[in-house]
Specification:
The structure is a single chain. The model has no long low-confidence stretch (mean pLDDT 91). The protein contains ten helices and nine strands. Helices cover 35% and strands 15% of the residues. Strands 7-6-5-8-9 form a five-stranded parallel β-sheet. The chain has a four-stranded parallel β-sheet with strand order 2-1-3-4, with helices on both faces. The protein starts with 11 loop residues before the first helix and ends with a helix. The chain is of the alpha/beta class. The longest helix is centred in the last third of the chain and has 20 residues.
């Protein structure tokens, strides 16, 4: 029995296989419509979510399976003080696999240590979000046809952005990757990620506060929102929330084949006018998320392709 807590647990070969499966699902959806018939997915979401939760649920339904679960902590016995360990032990008797989101870093790891069925980390605080990373990787592969020799700009909240942390870790495995870190000083990428991922692997990276200066060099621009829920101080959030807003004017100097990505939800960091730009990929990411999660569910359940 295997879980997925951190994207680093997957080898590059496994990621390639998942992407190949997702692409085959896109091309041949009917072939997969009963792959998980009779199986149940439990979605245990202790923190609000739209895309991730519904994506998991749509994935399981499209595989012919069933879904049970809850969408907020107050709907579960955790509101009465039940531990994560006891919750997953209980749910393990009702379902075949669990997708879990929790505001506390490490909670899905605790769940996996106490579960009799596979656990998929659907986001734990500011730590990890491996299925969003798989979604991002599938999008990059479909848009760029490769993972190597790319310059990726990460813009916005790089301190608390778990999607940024996970994608940097995943992309660091590939050749000739360059990273541009665009953020205010207060939201810079944590030092531990530079020291444990970028520097040991010799990834070339630069830090800047200027989106305009960085844009012309990028193959991919990964925008993020400044997350109110990660701030202890409302004044700090208000001061920083509009640090970077992507507009059509700022894209004038960008490459014609730039891919603009965003894990969503968007607040105002990408103008709606950019949605019409052919380089905007963030709603493609939403769709790709369902297909890669279908592939992952099958892999962890040991379902033959």
């Amino acid at each position: 029995m295997r879980s997925l807590i951190d994207i680093q647990e997957l080898s590059t070969d496994e990621i390639d296989r998942l992407i190949d499966t997702a692409n085959d699902i896109i091309d041949n959806p009917q072939r997969y419509s009963e792959k998980c018939k009779g199986k149940k997915l439990a979605t245990l979401f202790f923190e609000p979510s739209t895309r991730t939760r519904l994506s998991f649920e749509a994935a399981m339904y499209d595989l012919g399976g069933h879904v049970i679960g809850f969408s907020e902590a107050q709907s579960s016995s955790s509101a009465k003080g039940e531990s994560v360990a006891d919750t997953v032990r209980t749910v393990g008797y009702y379902a075949d696999i669990i997708a879990m989101r929790h505001p506390k870093e490490g909670a899905p790891m605790v769940a996996a240590m106490n579960s009799r069925i596979p656990i998929i980390n659907a986001g734990d605080g500011g730590h990890n979000h491996p299925t969003q990373t798989l979604t991002d990787l599938l999008t990059i592969k479909r848009e760029k046809k490769r993972f190597d020799s790319l310059t990726i700009g990460f813009c916005g909240d790089l301190k608390f952005g778990r999607t940024v942390h996970s994608l940097i870790g995943a992309m660091s495995r590939y050749e000739n990757i360059k990273v541009v870190l665009i953020s205010p000083d207060e939201l810079k990428l944590p030092e531990y990620i530079k020291q444990t991922i970028l520097e040991p692997k010799g990834i070339e990276y630069t830090e800047t506060t200027s989106l305009e200066e960085a844009i012309p060099t990028l193959d991919i621009l990964y925008m993020t929102r400044v997350q109110r829920e990660r701030f202890f101080n409302e004044q700090d959030y208000i001061r920083l929330k509009d640090s970077y807003i992507l507009t059509p004017e700022k894209l004038v100097t960008a490459k014609k084949n730039l891919s603009i990505m965003h894990p969503l939800p968007r607040v105002n960091e990408i103008s709606v006018a950019v949605d019409k730009d052919e380089r905007a990929c963030y709603f493609k990411q939403v769709e790709n998320g369902k297909f890669i999660r279908m592939a992952l569910i099958m892999m962890l359940l040991g379902v033959e392709q």
